[in-house]
Specification:
47% strand, Thrombin, subunit H, 113 residues
Length: 113
Amino acid sequence: MTPRGPERRRSERRDHPADHGFVRARVRPGQDATLVNLSEDGALLETTRRLLPGITIELQLQGRNGAVRAVRARVLRASVTRVGASVITYRGAILFERSICVNPAPRGQRHGN
């Protein structure tokens, strides 16, 4: 694989709830989403809600303590990742309108350690 050039990301991506602190995500008005990864500035998510580049969405993130945070975001790019008999799954990269605080667990508590 050839290098893709300089890193363009502004913040570190975190793949696991133990690393970013969020255990559930939903795209309003109530469509469950899977966080593939998350950073302070955006996320990569999968959902059965159609995602179109350029649209604005509201993402609801539920923390380990149960608190829900709503974040407005713009879809940067999206693609179909799975097509089933009755469902289509989309994967989208989104950019938050405002950075969020990502609170990782202490190193000794990550991934069940």
